[in-house]
Fold:
Amino acid sequence: MALAACGASQGAPTRFSPWLRLVFHRWFLRPSSSGPPPPPESEKEKVVRIPRAWQLRLERGSFRPRRRGAPAADLPRTGKLLLRSRRPELSQAARHTVGRWEQPPLVSAGWKHRLSRGDYFQLQRMRQEPPQERDPDAAPSSFQALGVQPQLASILEDVLSISEPTAVQIRAIPPLLMGCNALCAAETGSGKTLAYLLPLIQRLLQSPALTYGAAAIPAPRSLVVLPSRELAGQVRRIASYLCTPLDLQVREIGGGRGKHSVQQKLRAVPADILVATPGVLYKALRRKGLSLEKLCCLVLDEVDTLLDPTFVDLVEDVLRHAFFATSPKEVGDVWNPKAQLVAVGATLPKGLGDLLSKVTDLSSFSVLTSFSLHRLQPHVEQKFMRLKGSDKVVELLQLMKDRRPSSGAVLIFCNKASTVNWLGYILDDHKIKHLRLQGQMAAPARAGIFDTFQKGQFDILVCTDIASRGLDTTHVELVVNYDFPPTLHDYLHRVGRIGRTGSKFPGTAISFVTHKWDVDLVRKIETAARKRTPLPGMEPVVKEALSKKRET
Structure:
């Protein structure tokens, strides 16, 4: 009544909105307490019904209204899960397939907001062993079937207990034995080191040994270039196991050991295989203490790291000191042999084609890649946790305290050397034994750290990405990305430390996500996992260059 009076005082007809009219009828025109009048006969049979599916969702409590334009969230399906989320409606079943152009609902979609802290999702382990890309009935089952000499295959089995080749070795060994220049890329832990060492050693056995006087410049017969001293030491040990019974000499030179120490190693005995890092190799060539004119093979191992700004200029200068073949015939030429060039890595970087085109013809290369290249490993469990920066230490300490005595080793990755040192002090305060490895350490301090870790004397290693490239870590069970890696390449390399061929433990990777730029990478990883596609932005440009060369 008050509303009607107010409207009449204005001298104009009163207009009520539908909402106001509903309130007016409910509160001002309610029937008396004696009881409402009976509804008309026409209204007795009016019943509001909802679909049965909506009713079941309301009963389960899983119905949530979504915003206009937001994608509908699929309910979790029964059976094995591909992705498990804290919010069940965002989990994805292993049998569910996301279309190529479909945008799936992401757990990490809202992770840039501070209220998302505490959320997580986990990529489940889809298989127990690394995927094999070969048909057991069609593929060669022995190294001799690939063309490896019986003497070398016997040493491989007796010394390293390896009798069957992996998929990447089956694909790479035959063309490398023919003398082809090659780009070999496969997932980490797939056996790429032996894939290039076996053809290299066999070529050395077939070519005459070199001799030079005391005043001559040392000239190795083959060269393997690697980005770190730790990786160089590992490859040198594997090569020595195979070469010692064959009377082949393996030498290693690395930075931080002094000029005279390097000269003594180069001049001691003519090296059949020289394993070196770019820095010391560059200095030796500049000082005329080394010659690459007698090379029959040059290998760039972990080539994606060698193309970093730190190394790329040094590597380019080294390549300019050698003469590379453009066909297998030039490699086997008796009068004027030229070097075979092999680039190996877990990824093929975009700048590789530009670098190689400066020293040889790209059309002479064979590209050897695996199906799993640039893909997430299905046999490794991967968990992503959205955390506040100050909560990472608490989560890490809890992970270390929850470890069982029978658990494998742990790698804790940080982005900076200062973070490695600071985190080491925290672990010391909590009486947790560990080792630290980072690039700012002096060479003598770094020399035995990774060897000690591999021997099992310590089972926790806090390190930077210096330990993420190529190192053999078959006894590692857990990788913790304390700092989320800056690129997708770095993520693949870090997670590649677990689930390797011959690993003793099923691998698990846990990543702490704190910054907004970390979330951008996590979204790409989650999308690739849901669609089962390679990680985006990692397609090598060198493939396009090769195809254009061959067409012309």
